[in-house]
Fold this protein.
Amino acid sequence: MEVGAGSDIDLLAALERLLPRDLRYRHAHGAPGHGRDHLLPVLVSPSVTIPVVGGHPALGTWQALVLVDLNVDNPRRHVRFSFLPG
């Protein structure tokens, strides 16, 4: 994702408009609006493939890796990196 100039805040605002944290979801356990946390992976991929060149991610000039996790029910997360030989 390209970050900076407010695009990270714009992403969070867009996700809030698409998936508001309220009681509309049938999946209703956990914090209010937790059902949206189960829908988020449809819009934001839970995995990504990024080429690594010379030991560094091959990203565009303004790009960065962004972790999006709006689930307040799970405050601790683990991120897994896997590297495939080229």
